[in-house]
Amino acid sequence: QVQLVESGGGLVQAGGSLRLSCAASGSIFRINAMGWYRQAPGMQRELVAVISSGGSTNYANSAKGRFTISRDNAKNTIYLQMNSLKPEDTAVYYCKAVAGLQWRDYWGQGTQVTVSS
User: Fold this and answer.
1) Is 38 in contact with 94 (CB distance < 8 Å)?
2) Within 10 A of 106 (CB to CB), how many other CB atoms are there?
3) Which of 3, 52, 59, 76 lies at a 20 to 30 A Cα distance from 27?
4) Residue 73 in this model has a pLDDT that exceeds 90
5) Is the pLDDT of residue 116 over 90?
6) Exposure class string for 5-36: b at 16+ Cβ within 10 A, else e
7) The pairing of beta strand 77-82 with beta strand 31-39
8) Measured between alpha carbons, how far is 97 from 63 in angstroms, rounded to an integer?
9) Which residues pair with 26 in a beta bridge?
10) What is the DSSP string of the chain?
């Protein structure tokens, strides 16, 4: 089992920045990859950025050049630095871990990000 706790969401004006954190606990040695997803009202959950256990990263086109995913292995935490935020970035942001031999998904509770115009 892997437990995930997100933090760092909030209200920010367009053009501003936020940094989200996701702390993992439990069977963290089984984590294969972690990532950030988001879900806006009435929309499907979508990938924002992922980082593998080897450190490679991948971003959605909407995040490229503005968002950076990183991790601190000592703290078992990943981060999402979001710059140049736009109103369309408004969503609940979820942290996901993929762990174990069966590549099971674990989700955090989500953190709200609201970008005002």
Assistant:
1) yes
2) 20
3) 59
4) no
5) yes
6) ebebbeebeeeeebebbbbbeeeeebbebbbb
7) unpaired
8) 19
9) 2
10) -EEEEEE--EEEETT--EEEEEEEEESGGGEEEEEEEEE-TTS--EEEEEEETT--EEE-TTTTTTEEEEEEGGGTEEEEEE-S--GGG-EEEEEEEEETTTTEEEE---EEEEEE-
**Residue 115 one-letter amino acid:** V
8 Å CB contact between 94 and 30: no
Task: Enter the tokens of residue 4.
Answer: 């995930």
Using alpha carbons, list the distances in angstroms from residue 104 to 21, 37, 89.
21, 16, 27
Instruction: Among 9-13, 50-54, 63-67, 106-110, name the one with the lowest average pLDDT.
Output: 50-54
pLDDT in tens, 33-56: 999 999 999 999 999 999 998 899
Q: Are 21 and 33 in contact (CB under 8 A)?
A: no
Quick one: average pLDDT of 4-16?
A: 97
